[in-house]
Amino acid sequence: MERKIRLIVAKPGLDGHDRGAKVIARGLRDAGFEVIYTGLHQTPDDIVQSVIQEDPDALLLSILSGAHPVLFPEITKKLHENGVDDVLVLGGGIIPEEDVPALKEAGVSEVFGPGTKIQEIADYIRANLKR
Amino acid sequence: MQMQYSDDLIQSYIDLIKQKEDSVKKKRALARLITLIENGGPEIAQKIIPQIYNLTGHAKIIGITGAPGSGKSTLTSQIADHYLEQGLKVSVIAVDPTSPFSGGALLGDRIRMKKNFTNPRFFIRSMANRGQLGGLAMATKDVIHVLDAYHSDIIIIETVGVGQSEIDIFKSAHTTLVITPPGLGDEIQAIKAGLMEITDIFVVNKMDRDGADKRVAELQTMLDFAENIEIKNDQTQAKVVRCDGWRPPVIKTNGVTGENVPLLLENIKKHQEFLNQTGFIKKRLQFRYKHYIVEILKYFLVKNVEEIVFTNEKINEFIEKILSHEQGADPYSISGAIMEIFRDRYFS
Amino acid sequence: MTENTKESLNKKILEETERWINTTVAQSLKKVPERKRNFKTLSNIPVKALYTPVDIGNLDYFDDLGFPGEYPYLRGAQATSYRARFWTMRQFAGLGTAKETNQRFKYLIQNGQTGLSVAFHLPTIYGYESGSPMSAGEIGKEGVAIDTLADMEVVFDGIDLSKISTSMTINAPASILLAMYIAVGEKKGVPMEKLTGTIQNDILKEYQAQKSYIFPPEPSMRLIVDTIEFCTNHVPKWNTISISGYHIREAGSTAVQELAFTLANGFAYVEAGMARGLNVDDFAPRLSFFFNAHNNFFEEIAKYRAARRIWARHMKEIYHAKDPRSWRLRFHTQTAGVSLTAQEPYNNIIRVTLQALAAVLGGTQSLHTNSFDEALALPSEEAVKIALRTQQIIAHESGAADVIDPLGGSYYVEWLTNQMEAEAEKYFEHIKKLGNGSMLQGAYVGIKNNFYQREIANASYQYQKEIETKELVQVSVNEFKIEEELDKKPEILKISEHVAEKQIQNLQKVKSERDNARAQECLQTLREKAKTNENLMPYILDAVKAYCSVGEIVDVFREVFGVYREDSIF
Q: What CATH number is associated with residue B240?
């Protein structure tokens, strides 16, 4: 059976820079994905609950404020604690390259910086689904 | 992209949602079952629904629809708040349209439910309608049953009321709310066109805006008019849904501040009492399950017919006749003859 | 020149233009066709190959251009422009703890910076204490962590507030940070009458674009008008509001939308002040603006020029301001953060230079140049220095600042200025219609209907698509890309997570040492006064002096005013 790929695009933390997240949500919709946008200022608990209820194939997190070293691992930790291990977690925003290894270690599969084409993200998701 | 599942896995999810205690695991199992139904349709649903049907019949189902910009998500969130405060378990299905161009969808209704995300008694699921042919009505009916078996006290289905399939969904609701804010010029037209027959309560949301009272008056006039006309040529079976003796009340609300939401809830309660006292509830349920089985039958009959037509050798006799151009051997007459055979076999 | 000779001259130019296109140009095109089928600005205004006097044939020099420092201010806000004084070089800074920010400020002053600009960390912007769970991961990241007056005292330690002007990028809790600045001044013996600076205090664009709102629009507007009223009476040199297009642009709008929405917001604040009963000329001179400097060089210059003329015309004709200072639009500019690329980051220095030059040619009053590493991380000290040097080189070496409005009279720039004004007027009409004739109500309705949000989202999506299809070229991103470029990564700034720990400890210490009964009393008074129509500034001032935290004060307002939630518009 053909199935639709469902994604959650979420903005953890306080920064209000949602231009990138929204453009990506819309671009991925146009690439044929079902995109659930959960809005600004999401706490890690909010995001984990959204993942549990919406059962997406991938979770896309965007942070531009520099809070990623704390918030990304917090989210992946809570997902794991709740038994969610088959959702692809991706990061985006302003993420210094030297932070990437630690984020990958924490369970973020890939990090996309400014200037990434939406097509690249779409291709990555299709190639790396965990189920 | 293939869908992966096994009967064992489905069974384990079903066992989980049957558990008395609410838990994260149970919520995940529910979410997984919904995903399976969304992707697998009746093929999967026939493995699930028979096992849980005896647990259903408990939930009160509320349908909420309105044009984009009517504030229905915000109002849905307020309604959910009130039920949650009463200690009830509330589930929401928020349906948004699939883009006809890409097949993708943007589902943004969760945003307004943020307050209750982490409440263990609350569950919200965003669904894309996957086009008119995607069988949204079908999947939604199945999902409602799963949420009912999950022991939701209240199930709210919220969607933009645009297509027939969306309108169909509301035939499975106990009470349907149609939301119309002031200041959306052509909306009255939309109500005339299709929503009138499914409405149990009209809600004029954004009551703080100019024109709210005017909109209430328009709706009242429309209701006066509707009461005096006979429904003829009733293909939608609107009569069954529209119960004599219940004139849809028109309630003004403010979804942002929550003003008048308790009044709205009171009217929902009144409507459900009315259905129970008059016995209309039974008519509605009969109607709801007729629709449900029509959908299921459509699916399996089409599948069966296709199987027979393409694999059964006997059918070739009929095809030969068509090719011979004999009198009475056109595709319509031949199809009629095949229908006779089906009817004899299954319904005589 | 009489009308008749002008007309016949224009006719001749038209004929000659046609001849030129059909002969000289046509021959050239046969050899090499044009690079693109359509040329347009970033706001989708189509541009021709050549502009002539015919394109600005209707301009009246005296009515439409005039002289610098005079109505309609098209050619400049000040009579002498940069021949007397350069623009204020004001680099936005704020990082980590108050102490680190204080050091960065001193470094900038030492290097010749003439004004301070404070960036606050997000918990302060949203009114959360550093210890709140909402603040996790954010402390000291995008700006300085300010919880109480004690932090503010450290930020300005050793800096003479009577000599320097300070700009604070703060919106929803702007009244609280202003109160803190006043309190710091008082402690240093600088009375509030002498303080100079700006609070951003522009809440409308927060709902429209930047999203750091806390309360619903109406109570937010009340706090703004409270600060305007208070400053009009007590802090006369303070710029009470910096009406900002910068964030609207950063959220993805076009230049036209930036211009139109910002000025429309400006008119909304004017209406709000007048509704409070203030005389327009008592507060309008203290309103200032803040624009973006983006990539399309001439469009940006036309935008600043059009902004000045629109503001002057509306303030005079519609709001009947009498004081010329009310007609005169002054603005700060920051180069476009969104235009910076993470790929080959040193190229950003050149982007910033061009953007800064556009701002200068457009007559900005002050300027922040972005650091080249901002698409990678918070700016490092080295990168901040280069950004400041960029301004100094434009000022002192290029000669661009020696003539006022040097592009005035350019056929293209004047035409484009007219064009931008006309496009903006269309938006004003629409917003006014939304508000039944009121720009203030129009702003509220537009926000609640997601009018602005939708316009911006569409523009930003179109921009992204044009980059993906290479209709817009971003050097080293979608063209001229070198795959591996490992050796060129600059040193970047990291904020240690220890900052959070330290800041939370600081806050606890302040709270344990303050007169807590007094603090609670101030908060209670504030709670009661918030329910009335009284101006809240004096009570906020009392509360900050009692070392109540930004978080505590905002919590009181949250309780009384409620919080705002937005719909999602893509």
A: 3.40.50.300
